[in-house]
Write a structure and sequence with these properties.
With 388 residues, the protein is of the alpha+beta class. Helix content is 21%, strand content 29%. Mean pLDDT is 89; it is low at 1-10 and 13-21.
């Protein structure tokens, strides 16, 4: 199951960064002494992220390529390291272990070493299992007739591209867009997973791709439900922050998750039209996991999981990041992270989206983060590849 934490759907990313079409990923081997802050990181908090990825890696076919990056080798190259890493309990052994088994490579996007780093989080909402009172905005479950197609399964040149639709008379036809779905103009309006009390929250949880719902039960008690990504209607995502800037309601300097939310709530008569300029719609399912799950299929670790361009950086790859402070007064990020998620707005050889976790601080950091940064990939030392 994938929750795709659609960091991928950053509300403003389309107006802040567009990767050059010709920027290719270039790797340059370096020493650990060249990684800024390498000896200052607290490796204790990154171990769960590393081990979660390793639990997936050791189950894969040994001859399968480790993602789209040729220099990353095959799963056979990673599995011996992962078996050892899964047995580590002494934090003092983790840093020297990594130094022994991994070679760091500085990543360039063409000639550039810096890129945009944003943030995302796990949303908090209030809801009910039945429609009543203020709880009248649906969070829809995935409909049975939704067909999602990874075009790369059919053509190598289409790798990374996806479509979705409904089969009618033996042909795949486009699915309804957001405007149709939120207005009830589709066949499955009664198939709601639950109902929440705020249409803007309903929109934002789709942007994040997962959330924790405080559910009002019929016995006046409350329970918590975690929901995650279950499907998408196939329409291309469009950043509404870009639309608000285009119309002059916000500027590139002040657009953020918080300013977008504030504008939507202060302009309810226009909010639906603005939100519907993003024709993409996300469907959800109840999750039994103990946290949000990313594109790799593992539970994400706050501050240690990074969403990357999966067509360039394989899932499970450790990365050393050096990112400017996410907010004024905050410290920059010099730490080990793991590529565990992706998203439609995350494009480029040097591009990242930091998962901040759950709660008010996570939401605040995610909503304001637009930082420059760079990273280094850590690849197994015994991969017999020549990297210029």
């Amino acid at each position: 199951m994938r929750i795709f934490l659609f960091s991928f759907l950053l509300l403003f990313s389309a107006c802040t960064s567009t990767p050059d079409k010709d920027e290719s990923l270039i790797l340059k081997p370096v020493s650990y002494e060249e990684l800024p802050g390498w000896n200052k990181d607290n490796f204790k908090t990154v171990l769960p992220a590393l081990q979660r990825s390793c639990e997936r890696i050791i189950k894969r076919d040994t001859v399968q390529a480790f993602g789209s990056l040729e220099q990353a080798g095959t799963y056979k190259d990673w599995q011996p390291i992962c078996y050892e890493l899964l047995s580590i309990t002494d934090m003092l052994k983790l840093r020297p272990f990594i130094e022994e088994y991994f070679q760091p490579y500085k990543v360039y996007a063409g000639t550039k070493e810096e890129g945009l780093f944003t943030g995302y989080y796990e949303a908090s909402l209030k809801g009910a299992r039945t429609k009543y009172g203020a709880y009248r905005y649906p969070i829809h479950a995935r409909p049975d007739d939704l067909v999602m197609v990874a075009l790369g399964d059919f053509r190598d040149e289409l790798k990374g591209q996806r479509i979705a639709g409904r089969v009618i008379n033996g042909k795949l036809k486009p699915y309804e867009d957001r405007a149709d779905i939120v207005s009830g103009n589709w066949p499955h309006n009664d198939k709601a997973l639950l109902w929440i009390d705020n249409p803007v929250d309903a929109f934002f949880v789709q942007i994040q791709g997962s959330g924790v719902i405080e559910v009002e039960e019929t016995n006046a008690q409350k329970s918590l439900m975690r929901i995650g990504y279950a499907g998408q209607n196939g329409h291309i995502y469009y950043a509404i922050g870009r639309e608000l800037v285009k119309r002059g309601y916000l500027t590139k300097d002040n657009v953020s998750m918080q300013s977008i939310r504030e504008w939507l709530e202060q302009n309810p008569d226009e909010a639906d039209e603005i939100m519907n300029t993003n024709r993409s719609y996300v469907f959800f399912e109840e999750s039994e996991k103990d946290g949000a799950v990313g594109g790799e299929g593992v539970v994400l670790t706050a501050g240690r999981s990074l969403a990357v361009d999966h067509l360039k950086i394989p899932y499970g790859t450790p990365l050393w990041v050096d990112i400017n402070p996410p907010l004024e007064g905050e410290q920059g990020l010099q730490r080990l992270m793991v590529a565990q998620d992706t998203g439609g707005a995350i494009r480029g050889a040097v591009r990242g989206d930091v998962y901040w976790g759950h709660g008010e601080r996570a939401e605040y950091l995610a909503g304001h983060m637009k930082s420059k940064g760079r990273y280094w990939l850590l690849l197994p030392r015994f991969i017999e590849k020549i990297i210029d």
